[in-house]
Design brief:
Helices cover 71% and strands 1% of the residues. It contains 13 helices and two strands, in the order αββαααααααααααα. Strand 1 and strand 2 form a beta hairpin.
């Protein structure tokens, strides 16, 4: 385990920190240049664009994904027939959502001649090229992220099963409606689960790469509308062979994720309820 930690995690981590202070093209020895890479990031318009795209993706798709996951978990918690099948079916997209095959499928569904436009054509509606139009391309990737709600849904379902039934029985005797029971019993007792899912999904969303790479053919287009931060990092490191700059970008991403996680933990004390 320690060998794996040193070779796979700690070693590359320390190396990338060193490379972030160098001019390194993978073909020649690194040349130490101090903070030049970090200074260059402040003046990089495409980096700013990538940050805007990534933050928009995270702040919109993650809440929608968690809402969909919670809604399906509440439905499945009612004990419907064939629960095991539905649970597996809903979880399957989470296993495949970051795969190349699903990203290619998504490109075919939302292409100019894709399934979505074929359905719209039945009703006489001419749909746009969803992934080729800058106003819609990012939205299609958000829909893909929301669709992969299976993992948080399973966690929500486990949390719902841990809420004592006697709370609902007492609320029913007091005349509380289902909406009232959800707002005063279910939601407060689920806040630790919501917080756990929120932290995980925010971290995962900031690291999204495959979907954007496949849908945009690695360009981040159209007009950089799907240029995620990780995709731009890849372009700098492996297309432009500017590994020093890419390493600096990687450390900035680490700081952003750490900062967002810290904010979530700080804010959790105001809305997360632990039933001690």
């Amino acid at each position: 385990w320690f060998v794996g930690l040193a070779l796979i995690v700690a070693g590359p981590l320390i190396a990338s920190l060193y490379f972030s202070f160098t001019d390194y093209n993978l073909l020649q020895d690194p040349n130490f240049i101090g903070l030049d890479n970090y200074a260059a990031m402040l003046e990089d318009p495409r980096l700013r664009s990538a940050l805007v795209v990534t933050f928009t993706y995270v702040f919109v798709s993650v809440p929608l994904q968690l809402a969909a996951a919670l809604g399906l978990a509440l439905l499945l918690d009612r004990g419907m027939r064939g629960l095991a099948f539905y649970r597996s079916a809903f979880y399957l997209p989470s296993l495949l959502g970051s795969s190349v095959a699903i990203a290619i499928l998504w490109r075919q569904i939302f292409g100019a001649q894709g399934l979505v436009n074929q359905v719209l054509a039945i009703f006489g509606i001419e749909g746009p090229g969803w992934i080729s139009h800058p106003d819609y391309a990012l939205g299609t990737l958000m829909v893909l992220n929301v669709w992969t709600f299976g993992s948080p849904m399973i966690i929500f379902l486990a949390g719902l099963r841990q809420i004592p039934e006697m709370y609902y029985e007492a609320a029913s005797l007091d005349g509380a409606s289902k909406v009232r029971q959800f707002s005063t019993i279910t939601l407060p007792l689920l806040t630790p689960i919501i917080f756990f899912n929120l932290v995980l999904q925010v971290i995962n969303a900031f690291q999204t790469f495959t979907q954007s790479y496949i849908v945009s053919n690695g360009t981040g287009g159209p007009v950089d509308s799907t240029l995620f931060y990780t995709l731009y990092l890849y372009q700098q490191g492996f297309r432009n062979l500017d590994m020093g700059y890419a390493s600096a970008m990687a450390w900035l991403l680490l700081m952003i994720i750490a900062g967002m996680t810290a904010v979530n933990f700080f804010a959790s004390k105001y809305w997360v309820f632990y039933n001690d």
